[in-house]
Amino acid sequence: MGSKTPEQERQSNGDGPSGSSNAASAGGEPRGVHVSRDGDGSLGDGGDGGDDKDGDAALNRPNGAVDEEAMAQPPSTNTSKKKRRKKSKKKTSGPKQSSPPRIPMMELFPSGNYPVGEIQSYVPAVDNSARTTAEETRLKSRTQLEDPKFLDDYRKAAEIHRQVRRYTQETVRPGQTLTEIALGIEDGVRALLDNPGLEKGSCLISGMGFPTGLALNNCVAHYTPNPGQKEIVLQASDVMKVDFGIHINGWIVDSAFTMSFDPAYDNLLAAVKESTNTGIKTAGIDVRISDISAAIQEVMESYEVEINGKTFPVKPVRDITGHNIKRWQIHGGKSIPFVKNNDQTKMEEGEIFALETFGSTGRGFTREGPGVYGYGKDPFAPSKIAAPLATARSLYRTINDNFRSIVFARRYLERLGVERYLAGGVVESYPPLMDIEGSFSAQFEHTFLLRETGKEVISRGDDY
Fold first, then answer.
1. Three-state secondary-structure class, residue 73
2. Is the peptide bond before 100 cis (omega within 30 degrees of 0)?
3. Which tens digits make up the pLDDT trace of 286-326?
4. Which of 101, 177, 271, 294 gives 303 a disulfide partner, CB atoms 3.0 to 4.6 angstroms apart?
5. CA–CA distance, 316 with 360 (Å, rounded to integer)
């Protein structure tokens, strides 16, 4: 998660519909501060100082003596009006995002500087030993975290995620179909990227990092509405996990949240959200993966939730990471288990992590459910296949031209005009993951970077 496909690592970062400038980062300003600057390049009312100096000069003689006649005269009305007009000019602001979000990022941020994620200081590790030669070697290959172009693109994807999910949280209500919700998210992402993704290869420049996940209740993860499936309508009693990622030049900002409309589930959501935040807080250079996992599990298991008069402990979903379809789609990205384990691997500077936690009122183990979430091609598969069917060869070309190893849904193929999905076994399908019937589950996730001076939780927003 939050990393790059092997094919895309070998590509040069060319300009495209989603390209951003090489300007320096935004320097930690909160979102929206840029709007107050875009009018005339000044902040506050500091521009009035020039008028005050002119007034002082009119009231003083060259030799320093005070001109009493000038002081006795009332101030000019015209001067006051001019001052008021100057102040009003400073209140002009730049464009604001529409609802639904459809204004491309480059129009909102013409300088190319996007908001910096939340910066967290590193907590000193118990065993903070010196870097080994191997670690230093690996670090040299991850210098992109300090590259302004990479950071601008990554922060742009994060800002798009924040704006699209904010609109989703404000507008999604029971009675909508999951197809309507998924298309609303994906149309917003493509509009803000200014890349519809319909031209050959444009999906590889920027777009959805994987199919939008809308998993309800005991479906823990990996459900998305597709053509041919029975339409599902969101109910007021549902708990819905919303998981989507945005990539630019193959680098994915992955973040997820949970929506519910019944306060009975509040403790379930709180348990998973706090577990995710605990994992991020614990993470850092030289911290062992096992220590982070143990901290996450301890927090989650401290919660319980009462539903219909019955109390349920909140359990971490133990085997979700083993089925993670994003694990091979991206080369070099890492996820963190959220149950106790013996992984003594230490985090290293320059790494990117996506930390997602799942909590359930059920067994805490998943099984494969009916249907197909998405499809993915092995990143090391050949560029051409010798399939006997022309439809299979044509589909394989479409996949290579538009997705390569990025996981995609059937509705993505239909957008490109593909009507037949027979692939002759050249792609792998991924099913939904389910806990026991009648249980409820929640998910929260953030992408963060281990930079030299601290963790940048790049997908952090004021919502979670």
1. coil
2. yes
3. 999 999 999 999 999 999 999 999 999 999 998 665 444 44
4. 271
5. 6
The helix/strand/coil state of 372 is coil
Number of other residues whose CB lies within 10 A of the CB of residue 299? 24
The distance from CA 33 to its chain's CA centroid, rounded to whole angstroms, is 20
Over the stretch 18-70, which tens digit does the pLDDT of each residue have?
444 333 333 344 444 443 444 433 333 444 444 444 433 333 333 334 444 44
Three-state SS at 376? strand
CA dihedral 79, 82, 86, 89 (to 10 degrees): 160
**Start-end of H helices in 222-346:** 266-282, 289-300, 326-329
Q: In whole angstroms, how large is the CA radius of gyration of the chain?
A: 27
What does the alpha-carbon distance between residue 259 and residue 116 come to, in Å, rounded to a whole number? Answer: 26
The enclosing H or E element of 306 equals strand 304-307
Residue 238 has a CB neighbour count (10 Å cut-off) of: 19
**Residues 364/314, Cβ–Cβ less than 8 Å:** no
pLDDT digits (tens, 9 = 90+) for 220-234: 999 999 988 899 999
Q: Is 368 annotated as a binding residue?
A: no
Q: What is the pTM of this model?
A: 0.71
Sign of torsion over alpha carbons 292, 270, 178, 447: negative
Whether residue 431 has a cis bond before it, omega within 30° of 0: no
**Residues of the chain above pLDDT 90, percent:** 50
385's tokens? 């296949």
Is 238 annotated to bind a ligand? Reply is no
Residue 130 pLDDT greater than 50, yes or no: no
**Residue 228 has what pLDDT?**
84
Residue 103 is given by DSSP the state S
- Tell me which residue has tokens 């230093």: 136
CA distance 193 to 187: 10
- The amino acid that residue 380 corresponds to is F
With contact defined as beta carbons under 8 Å apart, do 443 and 241 qualify?
yes
Which residue, among 237, 130, 227, 225, has the nearest Cα to 185 in the 3D structure? 225
CB 275 within 8 A of CB 296: yes
User: Dmax over Cα atoms in the chain, in whole Å?
Assistant: 102
Residue 211's H or E segment, with its range, is none
Residue 445 labelled as part of a binding site = yes
Q: At what angle do helices 148-171 and 178-193 cross, to 10 degrees?
A: 150
Q: How far apart are CA 250 and CA 205, in angstroms?
A: 7
Residue matched to tokens 């951003």: 20
The residue type at 237: S
